[in-house]
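Page 47, continued from p. 46.
Same chain as before, 229 aa.
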Amino acid sequence: MVRNVMLIGRLRPSPVASPPLAPPRAIFVAVAALVVGILLAALVWHATRLQPVDAWTLRWQEMALIRAGGVASIVSATLTPVVVLTMVTGAVLGWRVQRWDLTLFALAALPATYAVEVLLKRLVHRQWEGDPALIFPSGHAAMATAVALTAILAVRVTHVARRARMAVACLTIGYALVIAVARLVETVHPLTDVLGGVATGLVVTLGVALALTALFGWRPDRVSSDPDG
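Result:
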């Protein structure tokens, strides 16, 4: 009996169920974001003047630019290193817990978001008051949204503590909101561009997660060892 107790004491913690990369409601959120994105794109299709809502918010943006334009520019400049950090951290985390779908997701979701937003800019071809730059959707808003979703889904499937998951969600969502506000303050984009960027980030990131979940054939009986075990 003592021998059995000693053997049990040496056993590793039991593996825990490994959730799919894409959350259960991912498809519904992605479809809703896609509908919003299509409606916004149709609203500003090949536009060269601001819509009434954009013209109204621009007055606030111009006042904010005078007071906080410099700070907004600094905030916007943080996006590139944050994107790289998110990709590397997510890929390493997936490798550490042997979730290869997470590794691929971390390496693919953000580049895919960037590629889609560049394509959409050329397709929608929205310009602002004679400026040749194409502005819909906001690339910063799309990428910041993709960063937040990538981080949230990564900690979701790696069994970190609940408090850590909540902290990651609050920090990354807060960061995405700050980036979106910064682009408005800089008057680089009107409101509809930023909303379109958020929709783009949601659709592409969740689309990649759903595709990888289907590709890797997730099953409810799949298990993954607790990284803290």
